[in-house]
Amino acid sequence: MVLLKEKGYKYTEKRKDLLTLFAREKRYLSAKDVQESLKNQYPGLSFDTIYRNLTTFVELGLLEETEWEGERKFRFTCSHNEHHHHLICLTCGSTKSIHTCPMEVLNNELNGFDVTGHKFEIYGYCKECKN
After folding, report:
1. What does the pLDDT look like over 32-57, one tens digit per residue?
2. How far is CA 96 from CA 1, 56, 67, 78, 85, in A?
3. At 21, which helix (H) or strand (E)?
4. Which long-range contacts (CB under 8 A, 24 or more apart) does 51-57 make?
5. How far, in Å, CA of 60 to CA of 112, rounded?
6. pTM score, two decimals?
7. What is the CA angle 30-93-51, rounded to 5?
């Protein structure tokens, strides 16, 4: 929360509860998931407020985002800084880091293309959801 204050943002109970939700869930959540989880505490919490805060948290490096099924989803940024990618369960949203990078294989096929960044995610079903 020090980071929020350092960057000029107020540290409010809503923001604290929103970040606590992500800490507890440890998976990708949509704004709809956030609204559903916090509706009893904050019945008037709008999608605009949620998206604005989620976007701010991404900009500050607290959350990372992805998109699947046409929807932006968010989770806490991984605690390790080494290069990695994710396996993401389509049912429960749980993620697992993988440290193999497909760019190592593709480097020979780039033909001088200057890659400035990439993202690799594998979608499927975790053991628990598959059964």
Report:
1. 999 999 999 999 999 899 999 999 99
2. 26, 24, 16, 10, 8
3. helix 13-25
4. 53/14, 53/15, 53/18, 54/18, 56/9, 57/18, 57/19
5. 33
6. 0.73
7. 15
Give the burial class of 69: count Cβ atoms within 10 A of its Cβ; 0-12 exposed, 13-18 middle, 19 or more buried. exposed
Say how many residues make up the chain: 131
Give Cα 10 to chain centroid, integer Å. 22
Position 55, amino acid: T
Maximal C-alpha separation, the chain: 55
Q: What is the pLDDT of residues 19-30, one digit of tens each?
A: 999 989 878 899
Two tokens, residue 126: 């975790």
User: Tokens at residue 25, please?
Assistant: 């869930």
Residues 73/30, Cβ–Cβ less than 8 Å? yes
Please compute Rg for the chain using Cα positions. 17
Partnered with residue 85 across adjacent β-strands are 98
The distance of Cα 16 from the centroid of its chain, to the nearest Å, equals 17
